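#struct-pred
JK: can someone run the complex with calcium ion? inputs below
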Amino acid sequence: MDVLFTLSPNLKDTTVLIFWGNNQTLETGGFLKLNKTFADQPLVMDFNGDMIPDVFGVTDSSSTEVCYLTNRIPVWRNALSSAVSMRIPHSNAFINLNKDFNAGESLIEDVMPTDPPKASTIGQSSFVDFDGDGYQDHLLPVCLDDGCKQSAIYLAKSGSKEWVPVLLDFQRRETIWSFVPGTPGQPLTLHLGDYNLDGFPDALVILRNTSGSGQQAFLLENVPCNNASCHNVGRMFHIHWDQSDLGAIQNAVMATFFDIYEDGILDMLVLSKAEAKNDLIIHALKNNFEADAYFVKVMVLSGLCSNNCPEDVKPFGVNQPGPYVMYTTVDSNGYLKNASAGQLSQSAHFSLQLPYTVLGLGRSANFLDHLYVGIPQQPGQTVRKCERVILPGLSYRTGTATGYTV
Ligand SMILES: [Ca+2]
Ligand SMILES: [Ca+2]
Ligand SMILES: [Ca+2]
Ligand SMILES: [Ca+2]
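RT: done, structure tokens with the ligand placed:
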């Protein structure tokens, strides 16, 4: 695994440094500094489908370029055929939107709305299968007013031009909470994961008290829609106001999901800032949700190795950006159940995605009819040779949930 750093002293020209991996450590002999700068943080994606991650972004010549790094030699190519003006900070994603099992840039205009909903602060785009139909949906957190006192989360389904609000009510008793508007260095972002393994992705957000002081992390659970505004999606977010472990962390500034103990159950990491201190504190919260659910955890690896790979040892490679995972199963009522997720679709601006996908199956589905994995590839290339590894020993039980790692 290599490490990519970005440096942007003036938040404009972003320099990219790459420290090359050397098995368990990093090469100490030096690093690669890309000879062009980007207008914003780059996106790591596999542009040419050779399983080697590439670096994509708007370069100093204001065109979109991609830098290939095959054999650790940077080669620049023009990326998009037409000129586009990217929002800064961008939330570019490399993800499959049309179920063809190949990732494409989320810039494709005919499957998503091109204009954001009417709002004064537009947050970062996220792509998840919010309603469990197998297609990725586009989620966007916004502030509706200039002071960022009125917040909302909108969703656009794949193939629809309509923005549907999936969370408008931020009122807890007498108090209105709202998003923190974000800064160029830390834009307004949702962090998504299926916390309760019901097959519908939930979110972690930071909200602030608009009438008092203080801000904290909140869990947004993906629940069936109960009002007219989200009717077209069928799902909405419900804020867990009384999550005491999150509420105990004062002045939280960022929160995301992470699988502590690698048991398939997503836990939470929260960053907070103590009063009059510069350093941030990291809090890890173990998920004690009594889910009694099944899940499948899928990790798509490149299977490539560049050095010290004897012939008889097959490398796993590293976690790929861009693969798409989808399952079909049948729920307890006999209805088809279907959900999908992308692996490492975004990499810039604290997207903090997991390097694998955890797909919750709910309580009843203890089997999958089909599990599909799509890996970006070059046009005309035949289906990639795949090896399936199921670890460890087919299934494991973790107290409340049973899962499979593929
Ligand atoms: Ca590549
Ligand atoms: Ca969907
Ligand atoms: Ca969920
Ligand atoms: Ca865990």
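RT: quick notes.
Residues 391-396 have pLDDT under 50 and may be disordered.
The longest strand covers residues 215-224.
JK: thanks, will look after standup
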